[in-house]
Amino acid sequence: MDIKQIQDLIRFVSKSGVNEVSIEQENFKITIKTNAVSTIVNATVPDVSYAPAPVAAAPVAAIPAAAPVADTSHYITVKSPMIGTFYRSASPEKPLFVNVGDEIKPGSVLCIIEAMKLFNEIESEVSGRIVKILVDNASPVEYDQPLFLVEPM
Questions:
Q1: What is the CATH topology of the domain spanning 76-152?
Q2: How far apart, in Å, are the Cα atoms of 151 and each of 117, 129, 136?
Q3: Is the whole-model pTM more than 0.70?
C-alpha cells in the first residue's frame, strides 16, 4: 500500500462515519480508528530506514465561558478538505494569500495545507469578503475544520 492509498483510506474513513478499519496484507498491517475528537492511525510496515518521526498532538485551547457569541449564520464557512498543517503563505518570506477584509472570488488561493510533505493550495469556491480567519498560521487542522468566514457578495 503506498502513501496515496493510505491518504485516500484516511479520507474515506473520516467521511464515512466508520469507527474502525483494519487492513492486513503481506508484510503490512494498518488500523485506522476514529472518534469525534481525532483520527488515530496505527500502521506496521516492513523495516525501512526512512520512517517519519512521530508527531505530537497539539493542545486544544479552552474557550472562555463568558465569551460573547457572534451571529455568523449569514457567513459562508470555508472548511478544510483534509488533515494537515495550515499555512497562510507559500513561505515565510512571501506575502499572505488573504487577510481579513480581502475580496475573494472562485479560484482565489486562500491558504496551503501541507499533508505528508505535499503542499495543497486551497482555493475559494465562493465570491465574497474574508470576515475572519479561524486558524493560526502553521497550526494543525482536521478534515472539515472551519478555516475562514466569508461574507457573500
A1: OB fold (Dihydrolipoamide Acetyltransferase, E2P) (2.40.50)
A2: 32, 5, 20
A3: no
